[in-house]
Design goal:
Glucose Oxidase, domain 1; sugar transport; 3 domains; TIM Barrel; 45% helix; globular; 8-stranded mixed beta sheet; 8-stranded parallel β-barrel; disordered C terminus; alpha/beta; 14% strand; kinase activity; binds phosphoenolpyruvate; Enzyme I, Chain A, domain 2; binds magnesium ion; 547 residues; coiled coil
Length: 547
């Protein structure tokens, strides 16, 4: 047995068989070097077969868990795989020139979608999205960048994970993550918490073949056990029982209001990355969704999600939340969240580069597609929009002008929509300093402490070697948090925190004293937060009215 230490990225106890995976680099993901016509044709056949199996499985799962209409869309896409118009066009492209099967599929998708989009018939126009969806599925299947297929419950071991890998796993089959690298605020760790997967990062796992061996992890002890002996297995089972008993105790807090003894009411919201995460939001009785990271609809794909695809995802989340507020952040692509089809320039400092709102303002066609989907979905539930990475009032006004255009277009087209309220993330020092002015042009603030700390202290949230220099309780960050809340309330808007610090129970009393109205945390952290607020010793001088 080998024992080693790590840092807890998500609490829990697990034991199971190891599936070791390699983290793909961005270049791996676009690695589709051309081989020969024969080999590319062979790859195409494999890709088609794999895409067919995926769609069949997905349709069956959707019929069971979502509904008949949604399952039929997937069955229709499955039939498109046999459509000679699509297959023959891909084959013809491969035979014609030095093009890889995966690229040929994407090109055919784009060309045929363009033809559908030009048609008058609304139904046929909507098929454009399906063509693109199907051809990008074929392409991903060929590249092998689809979900790492888990066939049995496994503990995933890797050096590190990309955000797209993390969301692509089938949640039901992942028992835990044990990573050699990683940081607490990397998106892989954040997503592990959102999906409630016991995780240890920064571990000293040996560099030797691990696949198929047994691994146990106990995050309370911050320890992993490779090839555990029978005594250790017994100890792990006891730790599992203790963890389960604690969860049962927390579930008793469902249905209670999150109010501190001093009278301050905090809304305990949850963060999600995928529509599937809503299940955990409801299970843990979150009072709303404070951050839906919409960029996960974009990453791990070969092309942009269509308006229809986005509309379906947003409307489904909003209707499942049944009237509770759902704050959907517009796409925050860039930095570590990579979607290669955006064709962003290579950057020396991607965290300081073309990301989030900067992409939306320079490529309004992408932004408008998302806004149209959001405005339409707002007619189906209680949706608010939130803009990431804001640094100036001007950016907000420009984004609002694009929102107004979208509204006008939907009105002219006679499409049902509702204007959602509009908030911004405060996650740059510029926005924190300008929060008094920004509060005059938006409906709410939500503080992104992950980036605000990174940019305030000039410290990379992805770099695990910085040790104690990375201080989430840095006084400069806390002072910003105080100022932001004051400026929000002085201007009559509400303010929350959706960065990971919102779930840091050592700071809950401080947030209450600053007057924070909402704290949005991973679903499994909602009830511990409620418990902490209910027992809070915070002394609120002024109880600010929470909206
Ligand atoms: C943040 O920066 O705190 C935040 C919530 O956004 P993300 O972690 O997705 O960058
Ligand atoms: Mg951020």
């Amino acid at each position: 047995m080998i024992t080693g230490k790590g840092r807890t990225a998500c609490q829990g106890v697990a034991i199971g068989t190891i599936l070791e995976i390699e983290a793909p680099t961005v270049s791996d993901l676009s690695n589709d070097a051309y081989m020969s016509v024969e080999q590319e044709l062979e790859l195409l056949q494999e890709g088609l077969a794999c895409a067919a199996t995926e769609l069949e499985e997905l349709a069956a799962k959707t019929r069971e868990q979502v509904g008949e209409d949604e399952a039929e869309i997937l069955e229709m896409q499955r039939m498109m795989l046999d459509d000679p118009d699509i297959c023959d066009a891909i084959i013809a492209k491969i035979k014609k020139g030095a093009i890889s099967a995966s690229k040929a599929a994407i090109e055919v998708g784009i060309e045929q979608a363009r033809e559908f989009e030009a048609l008058d018939d609304q139904y046929m126009r909507e098929r454009a999205a399906d063509v693109k969806d199907v051809t990008s599925r074929i392409s991903r299947a060929i590249l092998g960048t689809n979900v790492v297929t888990l066939t049995e419950p496994s503990i995933i071991v890797a050096d590190d994970l990309t955000p797209s890998q993390t969301v692509a796993f089938d949640r039901k089959l992942i028992l835990g993550f044990v990573l050699r690298k990683g940081t607490m605020n990397s998106h892989a760790s954040i997503l592990a918490r959102t999906m409630n997967i016991p995780s240890l990062i920064n571990t000293e796992l040996p560099d030797e073949p691990l696949n198929g061996r047994i691994l146990a992890l106990d995050t309370e002890a911050q320890t992993f056990y490779l090839d555990p002996d029978s005594e250790t297995i017994e100890h792990i089972m006891e730790a599992k029982d203790r963890f389960y008993a604690r969860q049962m105790q927390l579930l008793k807090l469902r249905g209670k209001e999150t109010v501190a003894p001093c009278g301050h009411r905090v809304k305990a919201f949850a963060n999600i990355g995928r529509p599937d995460d809503v299940e955990a939001v409801l299970e843990n009785d979150a009072e709303g969704i404070g951050l839906y990271r919409s960029e996960f609809l974009y990453i791990g794909k070969e092309t942009y999600p269509s308006e229809e695809e986005q509309y379906r995802a947003y409307a489904k989340v909003a209707s499942t939340m049944n009237g509770k507020l759902v704050i959907i952040r517009t796409l925050d692509i860039g930095a570590d969240k990579v979607a290669h089809y955006f064709n962003l320039p290579e950057e020396e400092n991607p965290a300081l580069g073309m990301r989030a709102i900067r992409i939306c303002l320079t490529r309004p066609e992408i932004f408008k597609t998302q806004l149209r989907a959001l405005y339409r979905a707002a007619a189906r539930g209680n949706i608010a929009i939130m803009l990431p990475m804001i640094t100036s009032v001007d950016e907000v006004l420009k984004a609002k002008a694009i929102c107004a255009e979208v509204e006008q277009e939907l009105k002219n087209e006679g499409i049902e929509y509702k204007v959602p309220s509009l908030g911004i993330m405060i996650e740059t020092p510029a926005a924190a300093i300008l929060s008094d002015r920004l509060a005059k042009v938006v409906d709410f603030f939500s503080v992104g402490t992950n980036d605000l700390l990174q940019y305030t202290c000039a410290i990379d949230r992805q770099n695990q070697t910085l040790g104690d220099f990375y201080d989430p309780h840095h006084p400069a960050l806390l002072e910003f948090l105080r100022i932001i809340a004051k400026n929000a309330h002085d201007n009559g808007i509400w303010v929350g925190i959706c960065g990971e610090l919102g779930g840091d129970l050592e700071l809950t009393d401080t947030f209450i004293e600053y007057g924070y109205d909402e704290l949005s945390v991973s679903p499994s952290a909602v009830l511990p937060l409620r418990e902490k607020v209910l027992k809070s010793k915070a002394q609120c001088k002024n109880i600010l009215s929470s909206k």
